[in-house]
Amino acid sequence: MVNVLRFTDVTYVRDRRPILDGIDWAVEDSERWVILGPNGAGKTTLMKLATANDYPTTGSVEVLDKRLGRVDIFELRNRIGFVSSATGRRIPASEKVRDLVLTAAYGVEGRWNEHYDDVDVRQAERILAEWDLGDYVDRAYGTLSDGERKRALIARAVMTDPEMLLLDEPSASLDLGARERLLQMLSGFARSPHSPAMIMVTHHVEEVPPGFTHALLLRDGQVQASGPITEALTAENLEATFGMPFELTVSNGRYAAVAKP
Ligand SMILES: Nc1ncnc2c1ncn2[C@@H]1O[C@H](COP(=O)(O)OP(=O)(O)OP(=O)(O)O)[C@@H](O)[C@H]1O
User: What is the interface pTM, i.e. ipTM, of the complex?
Assistant: First the structure.
């Protein structure tokens, strides 16, 4: 087991307000974490630190064994796969799907005049096929549906064989079918021993892919619960996190929560 992420007493303060407050959290390479919490709880801020896109105000964040503030963050970011709605907005609409994945190997968005090796082209096409986009390699990114775009962005994120894959609300805005399809694929990916550590932010327990092993529940910048998913993702912890009582059910690894009448 290798530690890919370690937060020690992390505080992140803006406008004199603690947005993250005393966070202790560690992730190992075999773990798949889901992060839940109400709007404004600090989930995106946590992601920014975990992807080396910002620094804590106090405390320490170690990403892939390197302490933020003492390491070249550009070298570190090459070892991390990250998908968020902001990532998608940076992709030119005319970008071919194959190039979208291929350019990840060179850390650029939008193909210019780079030369790519055949081996990279084949790898990009293989990954696209794995994410069910084998027939879309010559399509422009802007012509894809939301669900197809999400899968294309994940394919791009895994192209560089990252040691950690972070997904910020990958199912947001997807229709039921597209969401279920994505969840099935994420579930399969999560269960593969060859996959990197995974961390996924979501607003809904229904979107937790089976195979995810751990959960972190955040409220007002503080950890309400954290640990193996069966211990952390409980009705009691959801109530403490969202401030209302829930009935929580689990069936075939899928969670569902409704407010108690
Ligand atoms: N740079 C900043 N300056 C001031 N306030 C900030 C800054 N970044 C985040 N915040 C505030 O910190 C709080 C947490 O924001 P964050 O985006 O991390 O929450 P979140 O859990 O991801 O929310 P959501 O579920 O709505 O996406 C919010 O109240 C936000 O307005």
Answer: 0.96
